[in-house]
């Protein structure tokens, strides 16, 4: 038997920490050198590291299922010697996401270890640890209770009906109707404008700030430029509302907690709601429409059976799981997950799309079954970082799909599904255009 003293273990951990810091130092300087020469750092990511973000049509690639079958927690090396693990099993994913201690999602880890970010911290809830995360979430939670959100119900209905009217007008003029441009994107964009108190005439700018940051093929520089643009814009919105608070969430936070939150914090919270609620709901509305238009029986059920929409939406959330990866986590202590030893300092990537296709979650997970009993899926995450706007997203989906199919019972895709411009490598999976006939 080989024994290791506590002193020896401490020395080993110290050497590992030193090696990690040195690797991060070299990575940051090398990436800065590449950026100065116009070379995109994202080109350094090996193909295997992008596997969890790839799909065949609407389904995760077989390699993700094979990874889970091999082991639900497996070694997943990243560039610059970053030690990481990929979690694809549902039980193991819930364990990681549900831990209140032992993991950090602080953005500084990404900057320090992988050398990305250019110093631009998006802040918000997702990249913040307790107790700061606890403080910020406590301020937001009252606005996302069912009772508070119910006041948005009539406005969401108006927004949906307005988009359906606009689609009908386009068709009457003989113009193309694109379900992404004319329906799926404007509905969550206008809803979040309503929630935050963003002026209606700024909706196009507001909407454009979200999409590019999720597409890793656009490059790290483009992604972080979009984050920077968004925060600059939202700081301006916050500064205007400090002078004249509106009736939305930003105005409420300024009136009730203005002394507790500085302009940067408010902008970061608004940015988190923008990115968490716009692109995700837009992708769900668009890709969910593809599924509906594939199967006339599903379309009939959603259109004619009001009681079916809740189960339909839950199965759609599980099946699509458009947010493919959870916020990266870094272990702050040694632990064991799924029988695998994870060391302090290791990175952990949770594949939400892989976990929601785990047969331990539900039988035949590769099949879309709108009458399947709802399962504890991870489409909104789990634990302290679970999407705070989950119920708002559900309201949008439950309102939009039946209204769309009742207004246009003969709705059909204008092009072959195989030609749809699905995103190649995006944290939030989606489609960039969906031409339809009404």
Folded structure, characterized:
It is a single chain. Strands 3-4-10-7-5 form a 5-stranded mixed beta sheet, sandwiched between helices. The chain has a 3-stranded antiparallel beta sheet with strand order 6-12-11. The protein contains 18 helices and 12 strands. It is α+β, with helices and mostly antiparallel strands and 438 residues long. 41% of the residues are buried. The protein has helices spanning 6-36, 62-70, 90-98, 108-114, 132-140, 146-149, 153-172, 179-184, 186-196, 203-211, 220-243, 249-257, 263-277, 279-294, 296-304, 309-320, 352-355, 390-407, and strands spanning 55-56, 59-60, 73-75, 84-87, 103-104, 177-178, 329-331, 335-337, 340-342, 347-350, 412-413, 435-437. Keywords: Heme, Iron, Metal-binding, Monooxygenase, Oxidoreductase. This is Cytochrome P450. Belongs to the cytochrome P450 family.
